[in-house]
Amino acid sequence: MIAHSLQAAPTRRFPSRRSRSRFPSALATFTTFAAATLAGCAGLPEAPPLPTDPALASAWHAALPHSGSSSGLARWWQQFDDPLLDQLVVAADRANPTAASAASRLEQARAARTSAGAALLPSVDGSAGASRGRQDLTLPGVATTASAALQASWELDVFGRARAGVRAADARLAGADAGWHDARVTVAAETANSYVSLRACEARLAQARLDANSRAETARLTGLSTRAGFESRANASLALASAAQARTLVTQQAEQCEQLVKSLVALTAIAEPDLRSRLAAKDSTIPEPATIAVPTVPAAALAQRPDVHARDRDLAAASADVSVAEAARLPQVAIAGSVGVARYEFAGAKLDGTTWSLGPLSVSLPVFDAGRRNADVRAARARYDEAAAIYAATLRSAVREVEVALVALQSAADRQADAAIAADHFDRSYRGVEARYKSGFATLFELEDARRSALVAQNALIDLRRERVAAWISLYRALGGGWRRAGDTLATNP
User: Fold this and answer.
1) For 14-39, what is the mean pLDDT?
2) pTM of the model
3) Which helix (H) or strand (E) holds 127?
4) Of 72, 73, 98, 82, which is closest to residue 198 (Cα–Cα)?
5) Any long-range contacts for 354-357 (C-beta under 8 Å, 24+ apart)?
6) Could you tell me the CA-to-CA distances from 232 to 164, 243, 426 in Å, in that order?
């Protein structure tokens, strides 16, 4: 059985097929992350500490997927040595609505962070006014009044409510940024999978057409032999049925390829005629990276996953929200003031100067709210518990996805040689039976059976190549968006 455990050591080794599974230790590395982050979950203090995991935060900022740029995204896929794949990934990154929605949420989070930061500072408003008329019945004549002033107000953050709001906004901004990167990684993986599936479909279609041509030729020759009296009518019917079946398989395979083309058009927003011309410029070879083997994976590489970082920031924001709710039950202190200039004209006389005021200094103390603020605190604590549970589940899911991708990648590699041998020898067997059939030493049933076995083996080899690359792409997705080789280990993408 293939072992696929992630040890707590700096790197993760993939042992041979004879090793025993040690899956229980797969969570060892991220147990440290979870324990540090969820330490305050069992019993939160009145003002819970920010549950920041320094190891996770530093790993994330040091391993930003594709360096946060579209050019970095394209560079990572260049190792497939397929320029069209690079183009499709970049096009999908620009056109996909999921990534666009994530970018919109990121901008909203930035605006919310600005608003939260503004609560720490005074607000200043300007006003100006002028009037003319008889304003007092005891005074004759008309008076003109003009004034301009600045009014300031400031809620003093005595109990940390505004500061906690800023921490929550910072955490949500970081989470939205991670969500944007996660959307881009997902779109890139989906596009690459669709392209690889299309190339595999085209390879199967080419095999189906070769098989259909061969069966059609066999049916033609069998028909001639039947009319000459050398073959039975049963053999002629079998040959015609086999040729018709082959044409059906060609039509079915072509339909699948058409559907995959349509999927790529939807993903990339490239006009279909343009996409078809680009696809036709290259043969149906399945793209593979230069080095597809992955012998080691650093356990800490999981920390670069955008979804893990996003859930970590959600938990930090939920903790800060508890502090906000707690502070809302305490008194609020505010101070106001103004400074301005004024001018007054009456009966030829003028009076002008400056005006100012400081105050009032107000203290607002909650007295009775029918339990609303206490309910807000309980709701905030419940949201914290929910965020903690989601974070822990995300960590477990991250480990599982990497483990599954590594197992699939290794399994495909282990089957590659045997599948190639099977395809080669089934093809040799078919050629031998075909030669015997043409010489009259093999029956048509033997020929069709050998032909069918050869086709199945060739298609199995094509599917295995596609499966191996798909597992490699799944590992790319599971590790949060790429890596680069450094010595004998995998390091994150620069």
Assistant:
1) 37
2) 0.73
3) strand 123-133
4) 82
5) 355/147, 355/149
6) 89, 17, 27
Residue at token pair 């045997």: 418
Inter-CA distances, 297 with 34, 198, 402, 417, 471, Å? 20, 29, 9, 24, 15
- d(CA 155, CA 218) in angstroms, rounded, equals 91
Helix pair angle (161-227, 70-77), 10° resolution? 30
Residue 327's nearest CA partner among 47, 119, 49 is 47
The three-class DSSP label of residue 357 is strand
Torsion of CA 301, 304, 306, 308, to 10 degrees: 60
**How far is the C-alpha of 477 from the C-alpha of 494, rounded, in Å?**
16
pLDDT over 70 percentage in the chain: 79
- In the structure encoding, which two tokens stand for residue 482, read together? 């790429």
The residue assigned the tokens 């910072």 is: 170
The helix or strand, by DSSP H or E, that contains position 143, with its residue range, turns out to be strand 143-156
Count other C-beta atoms under 10 Å from residue 201's C-beta.
23
Strands 11-13 and 296-298: antiparallel
449 in Cβ contact with 218 (< 8 Å): no
**Could you tell me the end-to-end alpha-carbon distance of the chain, in angstroms, rounded to an integer?**
35
* 258's tokens: 């058409």
Helices 161-227 and 97-118 cross at an angle (nearest 10°) of 180
Q: What is the percentage of the chain residues whose pLDDT exceeds 90?
A: 23
Distance CA 411, CA 281 (A): 33
User: Hey, how many other C-beta atoms are within 10 angstroms of the C-beta on 362?
Assistant: 12
pLDDT, tens digit, for every residue of 365-413? 888 889 999 999 999 999 999 999 999 999 888 888 888 888 888 888 8
**Which pair of tokens denotes residue 278?**
């680009």
Q: What is the mean pLDDT of the chain?
A: 79
Least reliable range by pLDDT among 44-53, 83-92, 216-225, 435-444: 44-53
Q: Which helix (H) or strand (E) holds 29?
A: helix 28-37
The token pair at 186 is 């997902």
Contact (Cβ atoms closer than 8 angstroms) between residue 56 and residue 35: no
Q: Is residue 341 helix, strand or coil?
A: strand
Report which of 2, 34, 37 is spatially closest to residue 16, judged by C-alpha positions: 2
